């Protein structure tokens, strides 16, 4: 069978631990036999990030700006234990945070709905899509360990030499910690436009939530900008489409989501979106059953799985023990990137292949062939548990039909 040719390469960002193992299996079994794959490869494994002083992460983001479409494997964000385990030079920042800061944009995450995998929340009959702001907040923070008594202030020094502004954060009478966060009006506006445009394109209601009653300047700015962009640019189109923009407090939104039937977009600030997307994906069945794409207002797309590196399975793999790791979200990261590449390059065969890859993956699960995490929750009458490689091979078999 002739392979489907690509016109333009993808940016390929390799990653860590068990997802790195799965990454190679997917390429070998599901992509390369069918597609003349062209990628610009960047190794974002923790050892290489450390060896390059994290320059490889920056380079991969800049390549995405140049080529337009990237696909990313899950990566480790090191904590103190990881620094010791890997002998790192320092506790490198989240690669996702670094990439998102360079690309800007909004991360859209949605559950992969499969017959026989029923949501834990019985009222959820439709998917809930998370729109996560992908810039700033805690992911680009500055932190201090406070050794003893003293004060911490926020200081703004105007570039034009105007009057300095100071705000007391806290007067310490002993040791503690402090952090500063920031955001940009331009980025928040891009977040609002991306979220509202996605809602309009998909004809879904959209909710936005912050904690403006407590954060009366920072969070309130998000609320005001969203409302301004909606009123000035989207209100008439929303009314014509019969969809709604709805604002509420983040804690009220959580309560409402749990009682809803789904079928809407939930726009969240960076940290809220990080946490809530994991909650939604897990409640829909599995963390490995969630798509994730960063959509930049500048015309860049970065596809990835919404979950981490599956550390526990990786340690089993290193011991030669069998694993049954769910690769669905990583498969869908590849299919999403290939589809977008095909759309941008005008190669319909590549788009059709991406669709077929997703259909083969879903069909495999619906036929009862699935990994252990899904076997534990499926309503399928006779599920068959497959190990990591067996599941990918089962998808490959259907793909070749």
Task: Average the pLDDT over all residues and give the rounded result.
Answer: 95
Strand count, sense and closure of the main sheet? Answer: 10 strands, mixed
Strand content: 15-25%
**Radius of gyration, taken over Cα atoms and rounded to an integer in Å:** 22 Å
Secondary-structure-based class equals alpha/beta
Question: Can you count the beta strands?
Answer: 18
The helix content, as a percent range, equals: 40-55%
Ordered list of secondary-structure elements with their pairings:
Elements: E1 4-5, E2 10-14, H1 17-31, E3 35-36, E4 39-43, H2 46-51, H3 55-67, E5 69-72, H4 80-86, H5 95-103, E6 106-111, E7 129-133, E8 142-146, E9 150-156, E10 165-172, E11 176-180, H6 185-202, E12 206-210, H7 218-241, E13 245-249, H8 250-259, E14 265-268, H9 270-283, E15 290-295, E16 301-305, H10 311-318, H11 328-345, H12 348-366, E17 369-370, H13 372-375, E18 384-385, H14 388-399
Parallel strand pairs: 1-3, 2-4, 2-5, 5-16, 7-14, 12-13, 12-14, 17-18
Antiparallel strand pairs: 6-7, 6-15, 8-11, 9-10, 15-16
Question: Could you describe the 3D structure shown?
Answer:
With 401 residues, the chain is α/β, with parallel strands linked by helices. It has 14 helices and 18 strands. The chain has a ten-stranded mixed beta sheet with strand order 4-2-5-16-15-6-7-14-12-13, with helices on both faces. A two-stranded parallel ribbon has the order 1-3. A hairpin with a 5-residue loop joins β15 and β16 (301-305). The protein is globular, with a radius of gyration of 22 Å.
